[in-house]
């Protein structure tokens, strides 16, 4: 692990171009207009957190002043942390930990806070020191792991390619687990509130549900054939799902009923190898979402209407987003930038 000295070099653009070509990221199109009007929930502040070809893919808040963002640059993993509400940031690099998502769990019995991360290097990683160091709970799972979630009972689930699901518990600090399989389709993300009812989504509209902590799974009829990248829970029965080509929908009563939500007004993109996590659900009414065209939207009424909060990345894809409240959020893009939403000043400077 090393502290990354942030700098720009002439080769970073070419390095990124190679990776972009490998991922088949197609041109993005900006929405022609915002769903409603611009609403100043706060101010987006740009921070050049990492080299230009870094892709941030996960955000988690421990509380209103401690936040972590994870990502990767080719074969190097990055974590960006702040413990003072974004006033200062720490950037760490890891030569073998290539992060794809991150979740958090506070263990009241040990008074430890665990950060559990999925990795595209076929492993699940765990930190109990706010990202300073990471230990692999397992290696060589046989598939890249794309998303992770932890329930209130201390049971975690990481999901990945070819139907891989890996279940871990806080009993031993998430250091051992059980390998499960759910079909053969690439799974992109999972969510659970209680660690018992578990929901996963993936390519080609794949949706699965388990009512017993992943022991048994049921396939669920999907409202779309588009790949689904992100699922976030507002409660044990209400989820929001975000996928390719503008697909956004809300499910109620578990996965039993879905409502399509219109957020974007123009075609977005199809990403075949990258799993963005640009959806953040604060509660059943307050939801943020970042577009592949760079805009960030928010709803305060459960998806009935959406407000445009800004385009902090200036057209680059928002690849991860995590909100703590209506005016406190962190987003990351495809070029190593972080964007911190903080409360706007009550008056203009004099």
Could you list some keywords that capture this structure?
single chain; 3% helix; 4-stranded antiparallel sheet; 350 residues; 1 helix; 5-stranded antiparallel sheet; mainly beta
Mean pLDDT figure: 83
Q: Give, in order, the helices and strands.
A: EHEEEEEEEEEEEEEEEEEEEEEEEEEEEE
Largest sheet at a glance?
A: 5 strands, antiparallel
Low-confidence residue ranges? 1-40, 266-273, 346-350
Number of helices: 1
Strand ordering within the main sheet: 1-6-5-4-3
- Helix proportion: under 10%
| Rg result | 19 Å
How many β-strand stretches? 29
Structural class: mainly beta
Instruction: Quote the distance from N terminus to C terminus.
Output: 44 Å
Coarse morphology: globular
The percent range for strand residues is 35-45%
Question: How would you describe this structure to a colleague?
Answer:
By secondary structure, the protein is mainly beta. It contains one helix and 29 strands. It has one helix at 12-23; strands at residues 2-3, 43-48, 55-61, 67-73, 76-82, 90-94, 99-107, 112-119, 123-127, 135-138, 145-150, 155-160, 164-169, 177-181, 187-192, 198-202, 207-210, 218-219, 228-233, 239-243, 248-252, 257-260, 279-281, 287-290, 296-299, 307-310, 318-325, 328-333, 337-342. The strands form seven sheets. A five-stranded antiparallel sheet has the order 1-6-5-4-3, with no helix packed on it. A hairpin with a 5-residue loop joins strand 15 (187-192) and strand 16. Mean pLDDT is 83; it is low at 1-40, 266-273 and 346-350.
């Amino acid at each position: 692990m090393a502290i990354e000295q942030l700098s720009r070099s002439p080769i970073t653009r070419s390095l990124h171009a190679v990776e972009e070509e490998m991922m088949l990221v197609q041109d993005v199109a900006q929405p022609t207009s915002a769903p409603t009007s611009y609403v100043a929930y706060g101010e987006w502040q740009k921070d050049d957190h990492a080299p230009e070809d870094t892709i941030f893919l996960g955000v988690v808040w421990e509380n209103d002043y401690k936040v972590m963002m994870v990502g990767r640059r080719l074969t190097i993993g990055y974590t960006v942390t702040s413990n003072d509400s974004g006033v200062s940031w720490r950037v760490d690099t890891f030569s073998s930990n290539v992060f794809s998502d991150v979740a958090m769990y506070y263990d009241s019995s040990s008074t430890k806070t665990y950060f559990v991360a999925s990795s595209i290097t076929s492993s699940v990683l765990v930190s109990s020191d706010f990202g300073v160091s990471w230990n692999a709970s397992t290696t060589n799972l046989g598939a890249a792991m794309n998303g992770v979630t932890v329930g209130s009972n201390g049971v975690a689930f990481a999901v990945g390619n070819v139907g891989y699901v890996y279940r871990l518990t806080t009993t031993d600090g998430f250091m051992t687990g059980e390998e499960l399989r759910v079909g053969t389709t690439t799974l992109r993300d999972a969510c659970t509130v209680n660690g018992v009812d578990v929901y996963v989504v993936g390519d080609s509209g794949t949706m699965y549900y388990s009512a017993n902590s992943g022991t048994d799974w049921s396939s669920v009829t999907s409202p779309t054939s588009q790949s689904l990248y992100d699922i976030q829970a507002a409660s044990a029965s209400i989820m929001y799902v975000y996928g390719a080509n503008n697909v956004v929908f809300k499910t109620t009563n578990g996965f039993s009923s879905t409502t399509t939500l219109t957020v974007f007004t123009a075609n977005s993109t199809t990403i075949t190898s990258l799993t963005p996590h640009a959806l953040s659900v604060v509660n059943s009414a307050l939801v943020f979402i970042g577009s592949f065209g760079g805009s960030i939207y928010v709803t305060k009424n459960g998806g009935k209407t959406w407000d445009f909060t800004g385009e902090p990345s200036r057209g680059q894809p928002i690849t991860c987003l995590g909100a703590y409240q209506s005016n406190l959020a962190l987003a990351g893009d495809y070029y190593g930038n972080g964007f911190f939403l903080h409360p706007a000043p009550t008056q203009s400077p004099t």
